[in-house]
Amino acid sequence: MANPVAAPATVLGTTALFFTGSLVMRGAGCTINDLWDRNLDPHVERTRLRPIARRAITPQQALVFLGGQLTTGLAVLLCFPMECFWYATPSLALVTLYPLAKRVTYYPQIVLGFTFSWGAIIGFPAMGVELLANQAALTAAACLYASNIAWTVLYDMIYAHMDIKDDAKAGIKSIALKHEKETKKVLSGLAIVQLGLLSATGVAAGLGPVFFVGSVGGAALTLGTM
């Protein structure tokens, strides 16, 4: 795992594809979320001016736009090795179901983490690493995925505090509501978990000082300034 598996140009090209795919599918996730929440968003100050909530566009128009986003996302996905298609497909269920989580659990941020972090898994086959045939790679991918989940829950818990009063009135659940009085403790715990798992990723992959200083150190610096 420590040896390079691709030329720098290939890494840059793959990174560009990931950036494009992430941008498009993040947008698709927002469209799906806005469709599900079109009757909730008008009751929350931060979301009441979203296009569907304020009726600037109809749900039918949003569905057409979503179709374009998903088609573009599929086009990007097909630029990767075919293995990536099979690894990526399950994430569509998470993208679709995440908006429902806030209606049934106080921990929708965990579902969001599962969704947003999926690229940590796809990155390995995208670079020609077969996860099921490489135990070190599988361990590294699992640690990186879990680290990203912790990070997503952490920042979205902070984000959820913006809506905490409106969410309570509208019946929307969030980790911020559930642990409002223990926020700092929960965030600190998540930060420790994130950094620990990110470090474990480097160990499993046999990475060197650049990763630990740049990625782990950079993450620690970011968390320390939040």
TrEMBL record:
Coiled-coil intervals: none
Topology versus the membrane, per the UniProt entry?
Multi-pass membrane protein
UniProt cross-references to Pfam families, sorted A to Z? UbiA (PF01040)
Localized where? Answer: Membrane
Q: What are this entry's molecular-function GO terms?
A: 4-hydroxybenzoate polyprenyltransferase activity
* Signal peptide range: 1-29
Enumerate the Gene Ontology biological process terms.
terpenoid biosynthetic process; ubiquinone biosynthetic process
User: Which parts of the chain span the membrane according to its record?
Assistant: 74-98, 110-129, 135-155
Q: Name the domain of life.
A: Eukaryota
Name the cofactor(s): Mg(2+)
Q: Which PROSITE patterns match?
A: UBIA (PS00943)
| UniProt keyword terms in alphabetical order | Membrane, Signal, Transferase, Transmembrane, Transmembrane helix
Q: Which GO terms describe its cellular component?
A: mitochondrial inner membrane
**Which pathway does this polypeptide act in?**
Secondary metabolite biosynthesis; terpenoid biosynthesis
Family membership? Belongs to the UbiA prenyltransferase family.
Q: Which PANTHER family match?
A: 4-HYDROXYBENZOATE POLYPRENYLTRANSFERASE, MITOCHONDRIAL (PTHR11048:SF28), PRENYLTRANSFERASES (PTHR11048)
Q: What is this protein called?
A: Uncharacterized protein
